[in-house]
């Protein structure tokens, strides 16, 4: 075989190998975003050479902030100083809302997934990663309603694998409307909060189960249908039915699955339930309808109306002595700027009028995960105490 043939084969091979490389689009300049500076200001950057306008939209800003473009087409702005916490943000590019492509941290959500920026405190915040023993986070799948497969995020505390004979109480923790089962983990940092509280001796070792709260969306997705719109009336028939579906799933599917798969202590006094926003409503409805299964109840930025309480749960206010004996903790909290503030205060007033014992917390701020982290950090030490 001639040498020219071999030369032809080598040239062909080199062209074949280099083709995909040559076909790659040219790389733009490196973009670092977000950049948290030592003085707690934060610099955001976004590469968009052909954009006419880019703005930063962040939960710590009252209105979108204009960004400026440099010669490379990188838009940037420095804002702050920003109060240490975790915040969602996004960019508005010629009127279109986009995530930050330079940032891997994002907000799990059924709709738009904002990016996240973590501004650390000079003293580590309760949700910060610290040099303490850490628990583990597990992703689980279980048989759910209407033949679907449900999903859970489960936190097991430090030492769970090292002490195989030990059993634990369980805290069922439910996210809000449009959130997913990952939100309490990735935004609420519940695993790190519990790690830190346990290391400080302030909270019991416990398992935390974080389910997905939107049964209707999951059924539609797995059955080939369209995701239904969210209910427009918080205590309307549709909202109540969906809450009932969640209750059924939690009581008949999730709890048995967890108690079979993990080392749990059985009994109502070893189960807590809590939730944020829609998850708070699901918490109250599920708990009040199943006081034989839950003794610890935490409602974060949510409520039930007096009308629904009298209609669906008359025994709670009708027999307060029994309710107070059954409930080891009923916690109700909300931010003073929360759009659910008025309804939550009305719910507190209802409980007071009916002489139902509860603990309350009204904080600054609105309907945010910054507040939710506070509520989790304040209620976890109260759970499963003698």
Q: How would you portray this structure in words?
A:
- With 386 residues, the chain is α/β, with parallel strands linked by helices.
- It has 2 domains: 35-119, Immunoglobulin-like (Sandwich); 136-382, Rossmann fold.
- 32% of the residues lie in helices and 23% in strands.
- It contains 11 helices and 17 strands.
- The strands form 3 sheets. The chain has an 8-stranded mixed β-sheet with strand order 10-11-13-12-14-15-16-17, with helices on both faces.
- A hairpin with a 5-residue loop joins strand 10 and strand 11.
- Helix 5 (237-261) crosses helix 6 (278-288).
- The longest helix is centred in the middle third of the chain and has 25 residues, at 237-261.
Fold topology:
Blueprint: H1 3-23, E1 35-36, E2 42-47, E3 54-58, E4 65-66, E5 68-69, E6 74-79, E7 85-93, E8 96-98, E9 115-119, E10 136-143, E11 149-156, E12 170-174, H2 183-186, H3 190-199, E13 207-211, H4 215-223, H5 237-261, E14 271-276, H6 278-288, E15 296-300, H7 306-312, H8 314-318, H9 320-326, E16 329-335, H10 341-353, E17 359-363, H11 369-379
Parallel strand pairs: 12-13, 12-14, 14-15, 15-16, 16-17
Antiparallel strand pairs: 1-2, 2-6, 3-4, 3-7, 5-6, 7-8, 7-9, 10-11, 11-13
């Amino acid at each position: 075989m001639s040498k020219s043939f071999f030369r032809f084969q080598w040239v062909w091979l080199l062209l074949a190998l280099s083709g995909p490389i040559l076909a790659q689009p040219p790389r733009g300049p490196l973009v670092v975003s977000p950049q948290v500076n030592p003085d707690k200001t934060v610099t955001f950057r976004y590469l968009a050479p052909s954009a006419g306008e880019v703005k930063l939209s962040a939960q710590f800003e009252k209105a979108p902030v204009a960004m400026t473009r440099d010669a490379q087409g990188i838009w940037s702005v420095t804002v702050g100083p920003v109060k240490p916490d975790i915040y969602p943000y996004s960019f508005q590019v010629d009127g279109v809302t986009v995530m930050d492509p330079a940032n891997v941290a994002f907000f799990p959500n059924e709709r738009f997934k904002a990016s996240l920026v973590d501004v650390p405190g000079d003293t580590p915040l309760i949700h910060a990663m610290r040099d303490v023993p850490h628990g583990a986070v597990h992703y689980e799948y279980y048989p759910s309603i209407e033949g679907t497969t449900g999903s859970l995020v489960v936190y097991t505390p430090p030492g769970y694998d090292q002490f195989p004979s030990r059993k634990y109480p369980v805290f069922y923790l439910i996210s809000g409307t449009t959130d997913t089962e990952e939100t309490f983990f990735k935004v609420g940092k519940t695993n790190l909060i519990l790690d830190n509280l346990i290391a400080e001796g302030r909270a019991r070792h416990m398992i935390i189960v974080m389910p997905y709260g939107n049964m209707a969306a999951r059924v539609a997705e797995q059955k080939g249908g369209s995701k239904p719109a969210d209910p427009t009336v918080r205590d309307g028939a549709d909202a109540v039915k969906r809450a009932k579906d969640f209750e059924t799933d939690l009581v008949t599917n999730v709890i048995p699955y967890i108690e079979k798969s993990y080392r749990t202590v059985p009994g109502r006094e070893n189960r807590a339930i809590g939730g944020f926003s829609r998850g708070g409503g699901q918490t109250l409805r599920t708990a009040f309808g199943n006081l034989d299964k839950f003794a610890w109840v935490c409602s974060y930025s949510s409520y039930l109306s007096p009308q629904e309480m009298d209609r669906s749960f008359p025994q709670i206010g009708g027999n307060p002595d029994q309710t107070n004996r059954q409930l080891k903790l009923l916690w109700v909290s909300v931010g003073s700027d929360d759009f659910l503030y008025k309804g939550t205060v009305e719910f507190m007033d209802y409980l007071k009028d009916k002489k139902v014992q509860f603990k309350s917390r009204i904080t600054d701020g609105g309907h945010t995960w910054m507040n939710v982290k506070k509520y989790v950090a304040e209620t976890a030490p109260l759970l499963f105490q003698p």
